[in-house]
Amino acid sequence: MSGTRRPVGSAEGRAARQTVTISFAGFNRAWAAWIGDRLERRGLRVVYLRWDAPPEVPLADLLRGLSLAEGRVLILVSDWYFKLGPRTHEEWNAALGEVVAPDPSRFAAVSVTTAPIPAAAAVLAPADLVNIGPDEAERRLAERLDLPFEPLPESGDGRRAPRFPSAMPEVWGNVPRRNTRFTGREPLLNDAYHLLHGSEPGAGVLAVYGMSGVGKTQLAAEYVYRFSSEYDVVWWINAEKRVSYRRQLAELAPKLGLSTGAEYGERLRAVRDALRRGEPFSRWLLILDGADDPDQIWDLVPTGPGHVLITSRNPQWGEHNSQLMQVPVYARDESVAFIRRRAPRLSEPDADQLAEALEDLPLLLDQTAGWLNDSDLSVEDYIALLEGGIDQDVVKVSADFPVAFQTAWSILLNKLRETVPESVDLLRLCTFFAPGFVPVRLLKDMPHDNLPEQLTGLLEDPLLWNRAINQLRQYSVVRLESHESAGEPGSTSGESLYLHRMVHQIVRNDMPEAERREFIEVVRGALAAADPGRATDTRLWDTYAELVPHLKHADVLKSQDTKVQRLVLNCLRYMYFAGEYSSGVKLGERALRAWRTTLGEHHPRIWELTYHYANLLRSSGDYERTEALERQAADHLRQERGDRDLDYLRAVNGLGADLWGLGRYDEALEIYQWLYPTYRDLLGEEDSRTLNALNNLGFGHRLLGHYQQALEIDEKTLESRRRLLKARHPWALMSEISYAIGLRLLGRYTEAESIQTKNVRECRLVLGSDNPQTLRSEHNLALCRLRLGDRTAAGALLTRVLERYERKLGDRHAETLAAAVSQSCFAREHGDIDQAREAGESIIARYEAQLIAGHPFIAGARANHALILRSVGEREHAHVLIEQALAEMGAAVGEDHPYTLGCAINASALRNLVGDTEAAAELSRQTVTRATETLGRTHPLTLSARVALAADLRGLRDVQQAEKVEQGALSDLESTLGKQHVHTISARSRNRPHWDFEPQAT
To answer: What is the CA radius of gyration of the chain?
Structure first.
């Protein structure tokens, strides 16, 4: 019989519903479900048949039995399918040749693997569904089954379709207990209510600010309880640090019923989006407690129909679209009322006297009145103690605090020592964590082998632990937070305490040196014991986000414990992957100074620290400092250990990336051409370090314009990383971005857009919407859509990406500037030319300020700006600038580099425009020749050069040759990009093409 394919809808089956039987290995069930769903939505009947291959049945008989299945048989080709039995490739080759080859039209196949399969499987002609997005996969599936392909509308039956197998899957909380002794503040509460409810939608943000201890948190808590009936969602967040803020905001996702995975980045994106849209709840209230540094979190403050209430010591929130309300100390009548509620035994005159002495500060009133109520001491005697002081070293307190505070605290600590001395020990331990939310559960979870005898009972006896916590709570020294036990009333696990920063400072400073040394080692050990040890695993980022704020207060950089040092290194690595570059650089700088002093300049751990610090420093754009740091390390390690040492190779790997940032692409490529085979010989093909070097080799080729070589390397790296690290690993996702960029740079726009759409979703899920890698993914998606002609979607996405880059990394970061370049080019062609000009001038100035003279990015930015000047009629200025850019780019990267060829396309247009038609045509001829040799005849840049040459030939009145060149270019455009592609239509209309410089940020 003929070997031609038979359509599913053959004539004999038109009267009945068409049927496809899907034969699949159980391992590939997800693929079967997705394919079956897509076919059923197209009106086909699908039969699922899980493939099994019992060894006692000949394989040919099994295939004959399969051929009797209903309709056409669609085999899901994978290594798992052929392994079942088990069966050898030889058996499969024989059986396929015997059963399938005589009538291949009975079968169809799709491939869902990159692993080796039997050679005879070629008779199935499987359509490849690997490394593409769902839309392209469905198109190939339909083509393989000879079905017409049109995008399907969303299902109207409300049924959720199976997820594409290669894609990642897509209210009351933390509020302090109500203070039953809350007193006064009525005007403030009413003002807060009217300010929030009277604001415009999306602008309901109020910052209540004031000095430490004035009662901002208590005011916010009371607002919550008082007005909670007007909200559907209330969520309290510790906002002192960006990392903890992000984590706690993300924890709102499951409470909102959002379908998210475990990664807090995904949850954060979903939460912000849900709050912005007001779905599923529009009446929401977020409380951001302790947000003293607006610059750390202002960009993450949600907008939408709900309200945000901020507590802070910093009135600068007024510069970040927030309304302000100052919280003063108590009015005297409020002080008296509060004291009498807190200490019923005191008379009104006593309360007034005490308030006067303590300057009406609520926190101090709360703590002092609490223990005075349990004491026989009179108010007069207490005030005498305050005025006379006690025999102790002077405690240094911030000038913001009342003068009486140090003495009052000394008295309170003495009271605690007399009743439950362990409570003072616990309090002192807490001061080696950051102020605010203290994860004291880490103390209980750590190994207790080498504890100081003084702390053994506290940490090992649950009754003593709870007694100490309850004593601290009784005098309002700490607040028990959202981790209390769900058991009997009054029972606590003490997992998280809230320690006011004012209390934190006093207690930490008022501690004997011997106890300080012992207690800080205990906290360091607790933090080290909590280190998960896998900083690249996004599922563990919550843990690292919780640990990082405490490193400084535990003074971990002075520790000699290798486990504590390992914690520091892992936190630096987490900060690199999470995109917390600025904070990571600061920690790395401090660590390098401290460890060089304690460990010595050339200790092995110094080289590991240098590696992590250099990654962060490079990611922040400081290439010259990073290059000097890593070159020094590499030179020393090579001299000391030789060029096969792994620490040396790691330093050299980083050095190559530094050279990219400095525009020294040839040098960098030489490094990776040596480094990759060296790693491969030492560690094997699939070690992660070998793959990192391979990835960098591919990027090095891309920077030099070797796009096809780069694509082939990126594809190999992607497949290997997926096997070794799994698809959701950040490096695998990064390789997928690189692969999609490579496709786009080669003009394979549809494939690139399909892959990049999937990748954007997965990056958002795994890394979060503001992670730099996610922004890089979205940036490429915008460029893919722009190349496909979807200007509306591309423009909106470019704007969002740039805004988030500026908030996350600042306006001078390399990736921010790359996004700014794309946005400026878009504005020039499809938006506001004045905006484009302003942006272009700013980009050039920022590149000149940050990069070395002669860097290709400076030349590229000038080339783009020349197009803007041409568009506003400044031809001569544009001509001078593009000629300068062309010369500089050629000097920087060579005459045959795509950057230089692109500059030449623009330069020839401006030569033509100013009347130098001979020079324009000559430059166009050279450009076509070079582009054809470098990129190939049908590369988009070569096609642009050919269309430009035709225009220049017409300018010389060489009509016949111009027509020949133009027709050849149009024919190749139609066959390469399609008749309706925007570039083809533009060329057919004889619109002269231009080239936009696109910096490949390292």
So the answer is: 34
